[in-house]
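so im writing up the methods section and need the Helix-turn-helix domain-containing protein record in one place, dumping it here so i stop losing it
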Amino acid sequence: MILFRQELGEVLRDARRTQGRTLRQVSADARVSLGYLSEIERGQKEASSELLVSVTDALGMPLSFVLREVSDRIAVAEGVSIPDTIPEGMAEGADALVCAG
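--- predicted struct ---
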């Protein structure tokens, strides 16, 4: 079974390790307890949106990048191919979201 929290934890851990930072450094910068951040990275706890923003800010990464990476990993696990462009027929809905934002 694919779990969002596990994929999210792996993306956050990979980003932290790529930066050569310790869990302690990121937890201090994000103002999140070391133990809680560790549980999030291991996929044992769900991260609130506020906490997730704090962690991505501490990592210097846009939230959208992290969510896209999680989405891509889930798609691979599901065996789904995600196009880089919006499929025809869905563009109208996307245009409405861009105009509303």
